[in-house]
Each structure stands twice: as C-alpha cells, then as structure tokens.
Predict the structure.
Amino acid sequence: MNVVHIREFQEMMKHLYFNRDSERGVKGTYDWLGDELRELGEALEEKGEEAVEEEFADVMAWLASLANISGIDLEKATVNKYSGKCPKCQRSPCQCTF
Amino acid sequence: MNVVHIREFQEMMKHLYFNRDSERGVKGTYDWLGDELRELGEALEEKGEEAVEEEFADVMAWLASLANISGIDLEKATVNKYSGKCPKCQRSPCQCTF
C-alpha cells in the first residue's frame, strides 16, 4: 500500500482501533493526540529522520482516531476547506498579507 | 476533488504555502499547529459539526505544512508505520493488552 487516500487511512484506523477509541472517548483521545504532538516536537528538535517520520505517523493516526469517534470524515472536512486555493485570500499560491 | 491521497494534499499545501512556511520555520509552524490543535479541542467541547470539521481541516493543513518544511513525506511516514495492522501487536483489529 503506497498511495493512500485520506479516507482510506481513516477507515483503516477505524478497523484497527475504533472499539478502543470509543471506550476511551473524545476527551481522552484528544489528550493522547496532544501527547503525540509533544513527542513530534521533541523528535523535531532532537532526533533523526526515522524518529521524526514515526512521530508524524502517530499524529496522523491519532487525528484519524479522533475524527472516527467524533463522526467526522477527515477527507471531506479537509477538501471542503482546502481545495486548490487559500481559503482566506482565494489565491494559489496564497497571497494573504497578514 | 473528492478523493484525495495524503501525498496529493501535502503537495497542494506545498504549492499554496511553502514559501510562507519556510520563512516561518519549523519551530513557528509547530507552534501554530499546537494552536490549531487547541482550537480543535475547543470546537469539540463547545461547537457544532461545521466548526469541528473546519478545525480538523486546519490541523491536517498545518501538519502537512510542518511535514513540508521538515522534508517528510507524510504518506510514506504514515504507511510505513500503519499498514493494515497494529504496529505494536501486529494484529487487526488491534489486540494490545495495555
């Protein structure tokens, strides 16, 4: 598997972890995602590419888990807001002046 | 655009924001991602589905931006760790006992 749709990844995470994610709940899963983001920050500061890749994967995984138990389609949400142009200035590349 | 590969989304973010993301740098972009995660947490607690979807989209967007300026292929990183089974127990669904 080397070309993966966002939705496909989210579905895989649902198959692997939905029961456990549901038991843990939205708050607990959100907190865990925060922990993974902190680990990514540490890896970016201190560690090599392999560790950084693993931490990016974990953030993606926990974000998909959180979306699953929140009833959100991550691909739809993402495409609705970001579809080829900046949602603020409507340009591509973005030309926002802030 | 309604079926999106993780890589395709990351490439779109690169086209839209790479210059600005590069100027801001890894630390500043990581901090912004943290802010977006906090906003997602607030939306999950207080707001409706549309706002929650937008915040999920923003976290995905900033995670892709951070991957771009860190030289990480988010799809490759994700698939390397999560490819149809739990990376810890090697089962599907996960049967980890922790």
